[in-house]
Amino acid sequence: MLIRQEFVSVLSVLSVPLAALTVGVSPAWAQTKGCAVRPIPFDGGAVAWGHAPLSKLKQDTQYKLVAEDGRQVLQAQADGSASLYGAAFKPSRPANAWLRWSWKTDALVPRADNADRNREDAPLRVVVAFDGDASRLPFAERAQRRLAQTMTGRPPPYAALMYIWGSQEAPGTIIPSAHTSQIKMLVVQSGTDGLGRWHDVSRNLREDYRRAFGVSPGPVIAIAAMTDTDNTGEKAAGMYAGFAFDCPSK
């Protein structure tokens, strides 16, 4: 039962709390063609960001918006905790684009190992949730989704791709979730090199999804930042800024 509860927490959180944050986004914004950067600001934009608790049984990571070097930054502080700070898109966003952001952390989570369900923590995560045809999933996955919908009142996203800063895995490594085949972690950076500095990240969503899941993705329905230490019980700090959709991928 614990595994099922964890599945419900990790995947359904991307549709339940974040769905309440969704505000109307004009079809013109979602379907604009051409190569243009479309920022996703933390406030004052067409999309509403907000805190999304992971579970009533877990402590929440503390998130707050701060100013740094003339831009708005999301600051995360985890202390044996886990929750997300994210935004949902309505209508959904086509996945044939690059997602850009910047992030920074001063330290790793020493005992974290994202291949071990009991130590699955990270100082930095960016989570992207995708829509898809759930009828194509194996029976066990469909049963988990029905459980999630029964417990939350809404269907969870079809799949989620987590970009992480790992402790020991090589960049480019894809780590399957221990809880469901519909969550995959992709290591963007790893180890101590670059700690304490801002890093700009740009990811081809379609190609990353194809690598992780072996098929083309459905539309993007939500994104979130997540700094978590609920499994190791340790402390971690992360900072996020500059989220934007970039040019369509080929």
Structure explained in plain terms:
It is a single chain. By secondary structure, the protein is of the alpha+beta class. Helix content is 16%, strand content 38%. A 7-stranded mixed beta sheet has the order 2-5-12-7-8-10-9. Strands 1, 3, 4, 6, 11 and 13 form a 6-stranded antiparallel beta sheet that branches. A hairpin with a 2-residue loop joins strand 3 and strand 4. The termini are far apart.
Essential attributes:
38% strand, Jelly Rolls, 6-stranded antiparallel beta sheet, 250 residues
Task: Tell me the layout of helices and strands.
Elements: H1 2-12, H2 27-31, E1 38-39, E2 49-53, E3 62-68, E4 71-79, E5 83-93, E6 97-104, E7 125-130, H3 139-152, E8 159-166, E9 174-176, E10 183-190, E11 199-204, H4 205-213, E12 220-226, E13 235-248
Parallel strand pairs: 8-10
Antiparallel strand pairs: 1-13, 2-5, 3-4, 4-13, 5-12, 6-11, 6-13, 7-8, 7-12, 9-10
Short structural summary:
Helix content is 16%, strand content 38%.
Indicate the CATH class: Mainly Beta
Q: Which residues sit in consecutive blocks of at least 5 with pLDDT less than 50?
A: 1-9, 19-32
**CATH fold type:** Jelly Rolls
Average residue pLDDT:
85
Strand content: 35-45%
Oligomer: single chain
Q: Could you tell me the number of beta strands?
A: 13
Question: In sequence order, what are the helices and strands, one letter per element?
Answer: HHEEEEEEEHEEEEHEE
